[in-house]
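Example 9 (inverse folding). The structure is encoded as follows.
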């Protein structure tokens, strides 16, 4: 018996990284999972995004572990695609209990070098896409008088970060969105919380563009070159954590009996202790 037996969870950005880890964790507790991902490249992204093969692998991993999983290619920037994904979920499983709004893109540029296209790609995905997903699941959750929404922000959404104006703005924004939703649905059996991770060991961190930003003096920096520099970003001296670490926080938030809402749960390797 799992804590989420009979529940249905949508996880966005589930083709790899955090999203895949969250999908596997939810399924392990008994939830049927709808794993959605754009599974395509965004032109402004300087690193390879997930593919349809990655999404298929997530589905296979959930099923291999004994869970149920439906993979749906979805560009969360597109209202019609989001609604189609929600409709597919209801057709397949009949309800929606959990939304993990995880999908995001991130890349680093100084403010005066951010193009309109790069700014829009990040805001449209990370902030507007999250809004569209929440908006689409709320009617079903309200009808059920039950729902657990978790928005994945970032510690960069708790403080400024050099070269991340677009990403940081989006991650500050989703916290405001989640807190507002929490207030609006506070008496409907729905909670809306935020998980704010520090650096996660995923392709969003581990890519050539990011490595060069941290080691500009090295022609072709490797993971060994950037590791000590990432480790210096937090008091614990740990460069990054594996995605499964953050899935524990997701499970904590979605299994809450319904008394915790509007909360930002920071998994920060000690960065939280340095903040007011």
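The amino acid assigned to each position is listed next.
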């Amino acid at each position: 018996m799992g804590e989420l037996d009979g529940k249905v969870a949508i996880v966005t950005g589930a083709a790899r990284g955090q999203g895949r880890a969250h999908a596997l964790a939810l399924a392990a507790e008994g939830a049927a999972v709808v794993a959605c991902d754009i599974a395509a490249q965004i032109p402004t992204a300087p690193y390879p995004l997930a593919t349809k093969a990655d999404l298929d692998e997530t589905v296979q991993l959930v099923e291999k572990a004994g869970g149920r999983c439906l993979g749906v290619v979805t560009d969360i920037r597109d209202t019609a695609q989001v609604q189609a994904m929600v409709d597919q979920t209801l057709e397949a499983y009949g309800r929606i209990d959990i939304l993990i709004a995880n999908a995001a893109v991130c890349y680093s540029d100084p403010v005066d070098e951010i193009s309109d296209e790069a700014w829009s790609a990040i805001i449209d995905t990370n902030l507007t896409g999250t809004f569209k997903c929440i908006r689409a699941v709320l009617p079903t959750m309200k009808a059920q008088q039950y729902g657990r929404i978790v928005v994945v922000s970032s510690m960069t959404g708790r403080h400024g970060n050099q070269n991340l104006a677009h990403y940081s703005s989006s991650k500050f924004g989703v916290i405001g969105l989640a807190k507002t939703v929490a207030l609006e649905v506070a008496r409907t059996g729905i909670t809306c919380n935020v998980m704010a991770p520090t650096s996660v060991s995923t392709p969003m961190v581990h890519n050539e563009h990011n490595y060069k930003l941290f080691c500009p003096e090295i022609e072709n920096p490797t993971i060994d070159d950037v590791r000590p520099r990432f480790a210096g970003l937090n008091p614990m001296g740990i460069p990054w954590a594996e995605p499964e670490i953050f899935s524990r926080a997701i499970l904590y938030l979605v299994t809450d009996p319904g008394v915790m809402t509007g909360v930002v749960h920071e998994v920060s390797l000690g960065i939280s202790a340095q903040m007011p």
